[in-house]
């Protein structure tokens, strides 16, 4: 693999992140140049895997075959190190191998993500919260673990906190996207929770907004907020370079959770979220905070 092909791979990842990552791309700018590039690579990898599993134009068999091929190519690329013909592999792979080696990211994280996306290919239902938490680890927790390797950490307690942080973010997505997910045959809320509040999968499909639903959502929001509070200790375990972007992500995802509460849990009527100007402001504040710290550290 030539230096030029590695450069092209990084350029591909940065372009994809800039085009599709939205405000998160700008929050990446709070990091040092090398970390910024690595976050773009991480995003590009996760985005490509997600797209392979979530293409509505392709059948279940086609999507599963694509994910298996991706897994096989990743195994071959990792086994070959940097000595392979980049023409055979996806353009993000050279840069991915580079950040895995540079930041000592465990390889199995990237296979865990594939397993998580594979579990989404068919109708989804989880009996217990523990089962749901396992799914959240595969699609979000491992992302948090990759991030702390890129940002830098000084305490092994960062691993558990990173998984809890990913769980909080993914649960926020699940609560926000209840209607979109059920349309695709996915109900992530555990059956044990639905039964506790006498609500059902068919009630979600019919978008029945009543006291049962509000009580269910209040329960889920409170549990999710507890994971936010529990995982906030992650800020103390990572390097200052990553603290700004993590705080920004807490504010953005936490803001979505707050919005769900403000609309009295009615996620059926509208999609909860922060306005674009607010997310840009949060990202901008993260950049300013990071640059201010860098200047102080240089003195």
TrEMBL record:
Pfam family, one: SQS_PSY
UniProt name for this protein: All-trans-phytoene synthase
This protein's record includes keyword Acetylation: no
InterPro entries reported for this sequence: Isoprenoid_synthase_dom_sf, Squ/phyt_synthse, Squalene/phytoene_synthase_CS, Trans_IPPS_bact-type, Trans_IPPS_HH
GO BP of this protein: carotenoid biosynthetic process
Gene name for this UniProt entry: crtB_1
Record key words, sorted: Transferase
Keyword flag Transferase: yes
Superkingdom assignment: Bacteria
GO molecular function, one term: geranylgeranyl diphosphate synthase activity
Family matches, as PANTHER family: BIFUNCTIONAL LYCOPENE CYCLASE/PHYTOENE SYNTHASE
Taxonomic source organism: Gimesia aquarii
